[in-house]
């Protein structure tokens, strides 16, 4: 949890600042007894509003703490009365869990004994008899004791004998011995004689001491609180943080990630009405869980999202944030969306952390399961448990640039799942989301009822309001440039500012690009401003003005001092670099990109230095390159808009495809991570080792070369580059993907390549790719677990005439001296889908053949990707074996029948349980849909009757009763002990 600290401003007033837990500055902390009358304390509200009574007794304590901190060289300090919002139950609960760590991390703790005037009265101080001061005594390394008048009595070390005698706390504990070395009973005994205002606080004040979490339930009584605490202590798991670290995490996703550290928030006095509207929606009991802010490119959506996230973070309301970015790797798709949200959420509440941990422990494969399962088990489920508490909690999720997520299907699914948050009652969850008004998102919201979301169109806000805000933005940034470059006090002047506002056409990205371009001109800043002003007039669509500012930047990037042939060469290189950055499928550093596209480090550095108005170029050469705004990508790839600087997207993809293949051919080899053991497990390879042997550019090439090839539109032919690469490095490539944990992506790449290659023009390559597909699918599980088995088990047991086997047979290690006899060709079995823990009773393909559904005696229904074998969903709810499954004709729903006598209807995309049909008196053996998508009445056998729905329709004589039956739609097959089999076909019964 973030922590608020106090500081003294220049005018002598107290101000609050909020810090993330991993960026806390050095601080002091106050330990004291609250006044009997709480009104005597300086409160959180008074500090935030800057209005407090200096005559209050509590003010004296604040002044004492600030003066002591200053004397000890500490700028920040913490006092509980005014650093915790006591009226926010969520914040209060989290603070109680965090308090022990806050005291432990303090440089110094000042114990202010308001009832002590001299050392002889130390033992009589009520400070030693209060419950909450126990952790304040034990947690900090340094505790100093002061009288009411601020006279130092001594410290925890010099007074340890007296303190031990007064409190009966073992001296070892006072000296900092780990509290985990003491039994719970020993620590309980330390608090028994202490007093708290609320009985339950005797137990709650020990939560931090034991590092456990549980819901606070004032009213349960002291006995029940201690009982629950003891149970939590008994069941606490020391590896909680370790397991949670296994959640796949997109490091660039949070609003305050390093990637976004130079991005602005809204300036004061801008977006005033909009921010207030959003604030009201967050704070009030509006039933609409989702707020969709939609706007055209460059209208400032991300800046608003950062501002909302920052404000919520400062208020302790931010549950999680995820800022999508096209081509941004983990933040360019949804693969780590839900696990990243869950990871951030776990840091906001110890209780939620425990719930998420429990979910991961119960379902060890959750991080590889469907998005629906991850949402429900890692986020919605834990929040639902918090929802049962007696106090309300408030969280805000901020999701920016949803349209930058690469998969429209994933976008629709995420929105469908987020709506489920409306089921939470006591947890006040808000989802603030921004995007362009792209069709998939718009269609999803159009299908969503209006009582589920709030919608504001950013570019429809009054022009006067937008122009006012852009004026303030330009004024602020140009003032900074004026000061840095020592320009005249009247530069640029109100008239020029007005002209710039007109040219911006309501686009903040235009204003931001103009300011960067002017500022980077340094001594030529005035000339650059003139260039902008001499561009297009104020007429025309906003896009026209944005194009002009981008053209101005590009035209200025090549100095006139170069000759025409040199300029042509520089422009060609610039297009090569910019085009690659614009279409990258995952971000790369300048160093890595240079290696992929075969440009020297010097050349790429010189080119990038001239383009910082449109590119974010990190000072650190290992930092990722990115466009300042996605609108530049749209501009660069549009021939009409970009004109002479246009980048042919297909040509850019061809450059990257060729570069990736060339790089992999140079680097990849057998046992690239130098494990030297054929059974080495991928899960045991440390990330540092992986980064050492598989550099970022090599990992990029392994993951994306096929996609770039496809998007280039160029064909692959027998004996050429792609064919030669596969013949030399197929196994090396699959091995690298295995170490990276990306085998499924590799299989998908092979499937894509198979669809790309034309058999008629490239028969040998086509045959090789087909065989590679069979080889990879058959060995997927072992590649994922132990990649070096590619050269052992995978080759040894491949069919004798497999092209992959014959091509790489020389790679089989010599210690395999006698090879088993194997079949000549691949069998009909494409792959084995593993995951069920008991017999599989029923399977079915979706109508489009892309998915498989299976029902098992383990009580689950599973959905699979038919092409790659990847597990998509696990549908849980049945309490007995699942005997029959089927897809609806449109593939959107799945139906299952079970021995628990129920039929369940599921959403195939989200895994949501749509309906449970009850009433059967026996197990359900068969389920089916009619051609129009309606569920057919179920046929089953119960007590010698054929039953349709809930009606007995046909009695079976003794001679026709079976020991086994199978039902397919309206047909029943009977198998008898004699070996006789007979069939019965039934139409509809009226």
Automatic annotation (TrEMBL):
SMART domains on file = WD40
Highest taxon of the lineage: Eukaryota
Q: Which UniProt keywords apply?
A: Repeat, WD repeat
Q: Where is the signal peptide?
A: none
WD repeats (start-end): 833-874, 875-916
Q: Please give the InterPro entries that the UniProt record associates with this protein.
A: HET, NPHP3-like_N, P-loop_NTPase, WD40/YVTN_repeat-like_dom_sf, WD40_repeat_CS, WD40_repeat_dom_sf, WD40_rpt
Question: Where does the Nephrocystin 3-like N-terminal domain start and stop, copy by copy?
Answer: 276-436
Domain named Heterokaryon incompatibility is located at 27-120
Among Pfam families, the record links this protein to: HET, NPHP3_N, WD40
Q: Which Gene3D superfamilies match?
A: P-loop containing nucleotide triphosphate hydrolases, YVTN repeat-like/Quinoprotein amine dehydrogenase
Descriptive protein name: Heterokaryon incompatibility domain-containing protein
The scientific name of the source species is Amylocarpus encephaloides
């Amino acid at each position: 949890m973030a922590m608020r600290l106090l500081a003294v401003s220049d005018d002598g007033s107290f101000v609050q600042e909020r810090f993330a837990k991993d960026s806390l500055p050095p601080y002091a902390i106050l330990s004291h007894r609250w006044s009997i009358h709480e009104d005597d304390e300086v409160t959180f509200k008074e500090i935030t509003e800057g209005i407090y009574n200096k005559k209050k007794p509590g003010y004296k304590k604040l002044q004492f703490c600030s003066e002591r901190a200053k004397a000890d060289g500490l700028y920040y300090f913490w006092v509980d009365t005014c650093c915790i919002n006591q009226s926010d139950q969520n914040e209060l609960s989290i603070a109680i869990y965090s308090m022990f760590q806050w005291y432990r991390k303090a440089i110094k703790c000042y114990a202010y004994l308001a009832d002590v005037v001299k050392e002889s009265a130390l033992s009589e101080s009520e400070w030693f008899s209060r419950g909450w001061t126990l952790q304040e005594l034990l947690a900090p390394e340094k505790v100093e004791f002061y009288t009411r008048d601020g006279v130092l009595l001594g410290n925890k070390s010099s007074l340890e004998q007296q303190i031990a005698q007064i409190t009966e706390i073992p001296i070892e504990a006072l000296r900092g011995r780990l509290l985990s070395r003491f039994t719970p009973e020993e620590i309980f005994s330390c608090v028994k004689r202490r007093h708290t205002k609320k009985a339950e606080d005797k137990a709650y004040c020990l939560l931090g001491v034991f590092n456990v979490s549980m819901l606070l339930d004032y009213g349960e009584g002291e006995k029940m609180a201690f009982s629950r605490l003891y149970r939590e202590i008994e069941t606490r798991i020391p590896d909680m943080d370790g397991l949670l670290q296994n959640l796949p995490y997109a490091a660039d996703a949070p609003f305050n990630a390093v990637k976004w550290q130079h991005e602005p928030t809204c300036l004061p006095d801008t977006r005033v009405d909009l921010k207030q509207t959003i604030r009201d929606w967050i704070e009030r009991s509006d039933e609409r869980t989702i707020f969709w802010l939609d706007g055209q490119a460059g209208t400032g959506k991300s800046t608003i999202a950062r501002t909302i996230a920052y404000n919520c973070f400062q208020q302790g309301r931010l549950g999680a944030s995820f800022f999508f970015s096209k081509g941004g790797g983990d933040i360019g798709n949804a693969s780590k969306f839900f696990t990243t949200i869950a990871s951030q959420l776990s840091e906001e509440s110890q209780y939620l952390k425990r719930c998420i941990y429990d979910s991961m422990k119960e379902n060890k494969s959750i991080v590889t399961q469907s998005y629906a399962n991850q949402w429900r088990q890692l986020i919605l489920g834990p929040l639902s448990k918090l929802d049962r508490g007696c106090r309300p909690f408030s969280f805000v999720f901020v999701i920016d640039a949803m349209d930058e997520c690469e998969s429209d299907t994933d976008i629709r699914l995420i929105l469908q799942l987020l709506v489920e948050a409306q089921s939470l009652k006591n947890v006040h969850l808000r989802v603030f989301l921004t995007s362009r008004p792209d069709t998939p998102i718009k269609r999803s919201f159009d299908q969503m009822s209006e009582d589920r979301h709030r919608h504001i169109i950013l570019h429809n806000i009054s022009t006067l309001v937008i122009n006012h805000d852009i004026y303030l933005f330009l004024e602020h940034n140009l003032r900074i440039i004026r000061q840095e470059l020592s320009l005249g006090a009247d530069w640029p002047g109100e008239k020029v500012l007005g002209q710039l506002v007109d040219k911006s056409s309501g686009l903040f990205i235009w204003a931001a690009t103009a300011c960067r371009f002017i500022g980077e001109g340094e001594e030529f800043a005035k000339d650059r401003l003139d260039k902008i002003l001499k561009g297009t007039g104020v007429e025309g669509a906003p896009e026209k003005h944005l194009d002009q500012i981008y053209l101005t930047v590009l035209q200025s990037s090549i100095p006139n001092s170069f000759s025409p042939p040199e300029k042509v060469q520089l422009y060609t290189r610039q297009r090569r670099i910019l085009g690659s950055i614009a279409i990258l499928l995952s971000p790369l550093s300048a160093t890595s990109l240079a290696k992929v596209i075969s440009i020297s480090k010097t050349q790429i550095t010189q080119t990038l230095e001239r383009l910082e108005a449109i590119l974010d170029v990190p000072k650190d050469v290992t930092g990722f390159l990115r466009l300042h705004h996605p609108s530049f990508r749209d501009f660069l790839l549009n021939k009409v808009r970009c004109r002479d600087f246009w980048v042919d997207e297909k040509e850019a993809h061809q450059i990257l495809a060729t570069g990736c293949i060339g790089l992999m051919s140079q680097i990849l080899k057998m046992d690239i991570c130098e494990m030297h053991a054929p059974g080495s497990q991928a899960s045991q390879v440390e990330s540092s080792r992986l980064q050492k042997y598989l550099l970022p550019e090599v990992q990029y090439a392994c993951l994306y070369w096929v996609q770039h090839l496809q998007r280039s539109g160029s064909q692959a032919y027998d004996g050429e580059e792609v064919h030669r690469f596969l013949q030399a490095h197929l196994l090396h490539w699959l091995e690298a993907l295995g170490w990276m944990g990306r085998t499924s992506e590799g299989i998908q790449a092979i499937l894509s390549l198979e669809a790309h290659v034309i058999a008629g023009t490239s028969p040998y390559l086509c045959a090789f790719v087909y065989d590679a597909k069979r080889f990879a699918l058959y060995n997927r599980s072992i590649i994922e677990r132990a990649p070096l088995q590619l050269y052992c088990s995978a080759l040894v047991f491949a069919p004798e005439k497999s092209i992959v086997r014959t091509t790489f047979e020389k790679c089989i290690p010599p210690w395999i001296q006698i090879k088993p006899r194997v079949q000549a060709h691949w069998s009909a079995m494409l792959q084995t889908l593993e995951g069920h823990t008991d017999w599989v009773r029923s399977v079915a393909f979706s109508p489009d053949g892309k998915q498989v559904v299976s029902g098992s005696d383990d009580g689950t229904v599973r959905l699979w990707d038919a092409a790659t074998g990847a597990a998509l969903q696990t549908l849980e709810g049945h309490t007995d074996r699942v005997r029959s499954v089927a897809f609806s004709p449109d593939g959107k729903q799945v139906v299952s029948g079970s021995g628990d006598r129920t039929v369940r209807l599921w959403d195939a995309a989200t895994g949501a349980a749509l309906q449970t049909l009850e009433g059967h008196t026996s197990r359900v053996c068969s389920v089916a849909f009619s051609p129009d998508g309606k569920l057919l009445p179920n046929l089953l056998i119960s007590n010698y009757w054929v039953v349709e729905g809930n009606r007995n329709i046909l009695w079976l004589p003794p001679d026709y009763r079976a020991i086994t039956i199978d039902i397919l739609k309206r047909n029943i097959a009977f198998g008898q002990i004699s070996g006789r089999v007979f069939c019965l076909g039934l139409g509809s019964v009226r």
